[in-house]
Amino acid sequence: MTHDPRTEPNAVSLADTAGTAPDMSWFAWGDPAEAKELEPGLRDLISQVLRARTEDMPPVAEADVVLPASRLDSGLLKAFTELLGAEHVLVDDAARLIHSGGKSTQDLLARRAGQASPAPDAVLYPADHDEVGRLLELCSAERVAVVPFGGGTSVVGGVSPLDGGFQAVVTLDLRRLNRLVSLDTTSLTAVLGAGVRTPHAEAMLAEHGLTLGHMPQSYEYATIGGYAATRSSGQASAGYGRFEDMVVGLRVATPRGTLDAGGPPASAAGPDLRRLLVGSEGTLGVITEVAVRVRPVPERVVDEAWSFPDYASGVDALRALAQSDTRPTMARLSDETETFVNAAIGGREAVPGCQAVLGFEGTDAEVGARAAVVRKVMEAAGGTALGPDPVAHWRETRFHAPYLRDTLLSAGILAETLETAASWSDLLPLYAAVVGALTGALEDDESGAVVQCHISHTYATGASLYFTVATGAGTDPAARWDRAKRAASDAIVANRGTITHHHAVGTDHRPWMAAELGPLGGEVLRAVKSALDPHGVLNPGKLIPEA
Ligand SMILES: Cc1cc2nc3c(=O)[nH]c(=O)nc-3n(C[C@H](O)[C@H](O)[C@H](O)COP(=O)(O)OP(=O)(O)OC[C@H]3O[C@@H](n4cnc5c(N)ncnc54)[C@H](O)[C@@H]3O)c2cc1C
User: Fold this and answer.
1) Which of 23, 105, 124, 153 to mutate to test the pocket of ligand 1 (most atoms within 8 A of CB)?
2) Fewer CB within 10 Å of terminal CB in the chain, N or C?
3) 74-104 pLDDT, tens per residue?
């Protein structure tokens, strides 16, 4: 991404604002105080439904977590300290523990049981692009593995500090790259530091009446660089697009130097390098700045829920919307099981069939008209309008689910998610295959399983499927989930789904990447990596399939 002087007259430079939320808990999502204990009656009911004997699974005390000793030798420590300053090179156990992995259920199970291995040998906090560049040159020369770390919300092992066989591994926490670098109010673009978390980005943009409109469930902690590195998708993707659609340009530090990609609104100058770097998950370089498209803060939000007799008719309705010119900003459709479970959790009477929630954001003048056109499409597809209340309930509770997962884990119940996407023609067979694979892998003497699903991202040619699974933890919860995840991933690949729609690849989806890319596709990625990262120090063991 180039800093074009032609945009300078409109560029607004802001002071370096801290804006960083506190670290998340080492064993849970966010602030563990938010994960309330499960009421005994509710726990009995869930155990009965799951046919599981549940036992408490409290986390060990932090002092009892086993961390491998730091392997950083005095020469490396001195070199990092000279580069960043001593206060930005941490080798203490508390910093290494928080950076020992992401937030998948497997990550949480391991840490709750007292295992934080692997852990980074040091956590480094560079201040800007140049420091990141110099660190990468040093790590490449010294053969030290580097793991970029944004918010650490990866659920696929993306931030696991694997050393790739090198002498040491360091985690690069990018929180100090936290500025709104520039804002072009004519072109409606903003350049944001990679370490900016979403609430901070939105607060800085709101001062100018602007918004990014990217709201994944992890938005409180996830960062701009992390979104670009993983091709994230937010809850209002129908209107605002996926994060990659918002990215206008990128500045990336690599062991070989700086790569600037993108800038102009469109180009025919060969393959789009911006697209190559978006989704590269820290394996090709460290994203330090992202230029994004921004929009005016919506004047009005209109919500409407709908019910459909069954999932198939709801899917048809969402397809009709996605293929029409007039679309909502947010569209989600729960299957029968999720519709029932959501109503039960919310203490509401369940509507029969499936529930869809739609949201419209925009100007006063256009939102109502758009909602009216969409209403006709929903009615023609057999939907019954339920009014705005169910959507209001979803909006109130939508960011609480990660805390519920922690509550359930402490009570001996696994609740985990996985996702995929496919064309409209393949969607329902894929849905049935994944539900079958998960229940087949999990239903046993130890427990039954509840598998529910929703569509939350729609496109003209297809949609995503997001599965939530609840099952008793059993005697070996990690092995139990591993079995289920493998069965689901095999079913996804066999039924023409993508191995991931928005969670990214990391370590967990890597075994299925050869099937996703084909042999030549894998070779292309390996060739690009060896051009940018000749010694392979960047995020080893992630994303790129082995030869
Ligand atoms: C409860 C929960 C809900 C979630 N909901 C959603 C959702 O709705 N939509 C969605 O898309 N995802 C979701 N996720 C997944 C996750 O939040 C996203 O993948 C997010 O984009 C990660 O951002 P992060 O800043 O936390 O990145 P991290 O977790 O820190 O890193 C993710 C990957 O990107 C790399 N990386 C990070 N920053 C950089 C950088 N600056 N340069 C190069 N590489 C980098 C890391 O090395 C790693 O491989 C959810 C996760 C959780 C735990």
Assistant:
1) 153
2) C
3) 999 999 999 999 999 999 999 999 999 999 9
